[in-house]
Amino acid sequence: MEKDQSFFYIKDDTLICQGEWTILSLPPSLEDYLSSIDHPVKNIDARPISRLDSAGVEFIQEIQKRFSAAIQLSDEQKRLCSLIGSYTFKPTPIETPKKLSGVEELGQSAYRGYLELLKYFEFIGEVFVLMFSWIFLPQRILWRNIAKVLESAGYYGLPIIGLLSFLIGVVLAYQMGVQLKNYGANIFVVNLLGISILREFAPLITAIIVAGRTGSAFTAELGTMKVNQELDALTTMGVKPLEYLVTPKILGLIIAMPLLSMWASFTGIFGGMIMSKSMLDITFIGFWHQFHTAVGTKQLWIGLMKTPVFAFIISSVGCFQGFEVSGGAESVGKQTTRSVVQALFLIIVADAFFSILLSILHA
Amino acid sequence: MPKPIIQVENLSTQIDGHWIHRDLNFTVEQGEIVAIVGGSGAGKSTLLNCLLLLLPPAAGTIKIFDENIETLDAKDKEALRTRCSIMFQGGALFSELTVAENVLFPMLQHSHLEKPLLTKLAILKILMAGLNEDAAPKYPDELSGGMIKRAAVARALALDPELLFLDEPSSGLDPITASGLDKLILELRDSLKLTIVIVTHDLDTLATVPDRIAFIGQGKVLACDTLANLIKSDIPEVQDYFNNARAKRTFGA
After folding, report:
1. From A28, A83, A330, residue closest to B113, measured CB to CB
2. Mutation test of the interface with chain A: which of B93, B113, B187, choosing the one with the most A Cβ atoms within 10 A?
């Protein structure tokens, strides 16, 4: 491109164009070049141009208008000019969308949120009706699809959930141990660990990881299927996407989550046990004995009771947001983000709700 | 003497252990329109991917604009890519951009010109592809199948490429639009000195547009000749392709 720096030169009263006049090689404007011309130009000779494209034609016509000069073109160039000249159009129909004021935007987003909530309720209503119908038609249950969810969300989630929960146990034991040591109340770390992990940490950690791993996957999968018209294809075959794709996911996750939470409780306590031994000199036997007497199975049941609710939140929000995808790739990404954020939000809200409920029940 | 734009010599390609091409030879000269035909799965799209530098060949050489693509460094490859463009079969329009923005996108990436002029050129390309101005501010998911094809053609023309690849340009289009597109292809070649490679199954397009037709089968170019000569060919695969009832109706043979 550099070798064709000069685009024209002037000989007598003729402007002779040369080099490549293409969209890639032309400078932003020829103004600077043209303003240096001080005597009138009567002719423009475009024939020496080695390559002319539509951008070049625009430039030449601009120059021609400016000097109102005659123009000489080769046959090929004439064809190109007449091809371009045959299209007439208004200059710039590209509009930028109107900016909304702050209040309008707030109102609109609130209204959109309200509509989305209504749609979500409608969605889970339909899911409940379908699942209820399975009670009477158990042969319709898609065990295969449920098993797939158990494998991908449950089995393949074991390592990461186990590891993170183990580390949480270590961290908790350390933080509590530092305080308890001051009072010589080392052994009570077992009570604290047992209750906090079984009741709160195991279900929450599990829910957070599952929302990130599985909820997002549900949204992306369904969203991409929607973009590819695969959902429409299912509907036309007389298969309800809701029944074939959504209910197995919800049911599968409701089965998988308590198991995962149980596993998280186990590894979390194990992590606490190891930290207690190395920092607080509590032997495994001592730990186990104290655990047995101080932490009842009630704590485990309270923790496990929450998990089906979390599972339902994650899977229903994930699938709902998948169905909300419209358009293309960008929408899939946007809805996946929404799915994870909303699921996490609702999980924390549900957990707080459980705490309030249990405090009323003095449990 | 026209110079060759694409020279493919003894190309072999392999995908997941399957040989797609074996010693394929293929040449396209400047200003020529060459159609690539062949049965489904014959390796038409794979050949296109090789020519677009998307798929490295397992063996053989590909020269585009007389440059061996294997020896090019990244910068030269970029330069080469601005001289070629493709219309993908499914359009491959960016879903989060409007039609006008889709056409503008390659222009803004590579050109020094000011945006108002580029916008004007983008609209010109949209009109050239046979779309209405009203389509410019629309998003791809608001367009019909035929409009997506034309928007994709408009985007392929954005940089006024020297070499244009069209993957099934007229499939799924109504006959009026399809023949309009055929006319456009010929017009572009004549006025912009474009070299065009078309992958197509459209017999009407084959009858009117290409100068030569390359028939791919058994991983090779079995024949590359004018339509009239291919119809007379005695290679069995080519015979089957051009001498069935449908083809006879179109070609009037």
Report:
1. A28
2. B113
Give rounded-to-5 percent helix, strand, coil for chain B. 40, 25, 35
Task: Summarize pLDDT for B165-219 with one digit per residue, the tens.
Answer: 998 888 777 888 788 888 888 887 887 778 999 998 888 888 888 888 888 888 8
Chain A residue closest in CA terms to B116: A92
Contact at CB, B100 and A94, closer than 8 angstroms: yes
CB contact under 8 A, B111 and A95: no
Q: Is pLDDT at B8 greater than 70 in this prediction?
A: yes
Reported ipTM: the value is 0.73
Q: Minimal Cα–Cα distance from B197 to chain A, Å?
A: 19
Dump pLDDT digits (tens) for B123-175.
888 888 888 888 888 888 888 888 888 888 889 888 888 889 998 888 777 88
The answer to whether B114 contacts A80, with C-beta atoms less than 8 Å apart, is no
CA-nearest of B99, B84, B188 to B151 is B99
Closest CA to B99 of B64, B141, B145: B141
Three-state DSSP state, A294 = helix
State whether A80 and B137 contact (CB < 8 Å).
no
Ranges in chain A, pLDDT < 50 = 1-4
Domain covering A2-85 in this structure, CATH number: 3.30.750.24
Q: Which of B107, B160, B191 lies at the smallest CB-CB distance from A76?
A: B191
> Please, is A206 exposed, middle or buried when counting C-beta atoms within 10 Å of its C-beta (0-12, 13-18, 19+)?
buried
CB A201, CB A303: distance < 8 Å: no
Looking at chain A, which residues constitute the CATH 3.30.750.24 domain(s)? 2-85
